[in-house]
Amino acid sequence: MSGADTPPEHASRGASAAPPCLAAPLRACRAHPGQTAVHGEDSSRGTRRARLRPSGVRRVPLGHLRFAMESIRPEAQQYVVERNVDGVPFDRDTRSIVYERSKGTDGEDPFSSELELERPGIGGVLPGAEVDREIAAVRGVPERRTVISPPYHRVHRTPRELVRFLDHMREPSGGEPVGFKLCVGSRRGLLAVCKAMLEEDITPDFIVVDGAEGGTGAAPLEFADAVGLPLTEGLTTVHRALVGAGLRDRIRIGASGRVATGSDIVKRPIQGADHTNSARAMMFALGCIPAQRCHTNTCPVGVASQDRGRSHALDVKDKARRVQRFQEATVKSALQIMAAMGVDDPSGLKPGMLLHRVWPNAVRSHAELYAPLEPGRLLSAASIPAAWAGDWNTAHPDRFTLS
Question: Could you read off the pLDDT of 339-391 as tens digits, one per residue?
């Protein structure tokens, strides 16, 4: 291009004078009739360039928009992009605890009043706002009064008292199965219950094992995230303990905790369950969204609310059919997976069929990771596996703890 054809903005830096409009960067000036030029520094070339647009049309430079978005990026990241457990160094769940407790609003959470009591564990809470006339009549409690369930049962405090209470409940149950549910925290405590069953010759009809990943409205975040074993470890521990104590054939085991798909149903019998339970998945089929407002009586979809205006949004007839379809489709999926494994009955599912990736290039079967115990092996001091000896020898039927 000849010098005569060179536009003013591309003129040599050696020119004696710059065009008047270049004297004030980022200011609009008249370049040609009907057009406006906006000038700015082009950092990639070290030259000044003009962008032309129709006269009278105001436009924010893209660079400015970028700076504006940068200024709100932390907020957008926290409130729009990241999940509750993704934040670094503190996730949103943890920050929420700090915010709520600093404002004194933590007392409105469903577990709050239990935090003020000096006893272990956390019980369930039914907020008074949800105790309407119907709920009060069913529960036999005063209307609009918060109902607090204790973190332990008032009738029993030791493993022996627990199994005796189970036996006591058989008569009023009218022949219905009697059992208990737990999230395993201590293998020694579980073995203490096994010893109590052996000494009293009393066993429950079933034990439901809940995983730490299971949902609850009766525990604070710290308990839900950090207390108890995940379902795989907890279920396997209960199954092996009952086998080793010679009690497995007298007790059925249920598995609960994020059971939502056909694969969930298939893998839990491999780990020792006789059946699986599902709660939150059924609630999702009802239309539940994880709004985490269950304890406020303001569930946005009416699933967990006694407020008539909100619960009216729940079409029981339609949602009941949805739950039925979900359950049927999930069981069908489980049967298809079993068929692909060459199994036509849950009893044919074996520990060697479930594989765990333990390293990027290493896979182990469930049987390899959790060596099975032979029936009754814990009952003889000479045959107790070394890995179980410490917990079995210190477990006592009259206490859950060491002392």
Answer: 999 999 999 999 999 999 999 999 999 999 999 999 999 999 999 999 999 99
Residue that is last in its domain, among 40, 72, 104: 104
Read off the tokens for 250.
């007298």
Q: Give the 3-state DSSP-derived string for 102-148, with helices as H, strands as E and coil as C.
A: HHCCHHHCCCHHHHCCCCCCCCCEECHHHCCHHHHHHHCCCCCCCEE
79/112 Cα distance (integer angstroms) = 25
Q: Are 300 and 264 in contact (CB under 8 A)?
A: no
Contacts of the segment 125-130: beta carbons below 8 A, 24+ positions apart: 125/149, 125/217, 125/218, 125/295, 127/295, 127/296, 127/297, 129/296, 129/297, 129/306, 130/297, 130/305, 130/306
Q: Of 309, 282, 306, 284, give the one whose Cα is nearest residue 296.
A: 306
Find out whether 150 and 218 touch, Cβ atoms under 8 Å: no
| Domain span at 227 | 158-278+341-394
Provide the pLDDT for residue 91.
72
Residue 154 half-sphere exposure, CB side, CA atoms within 13 Å? 3
| CATH code at position 274 | 3.20.20.70
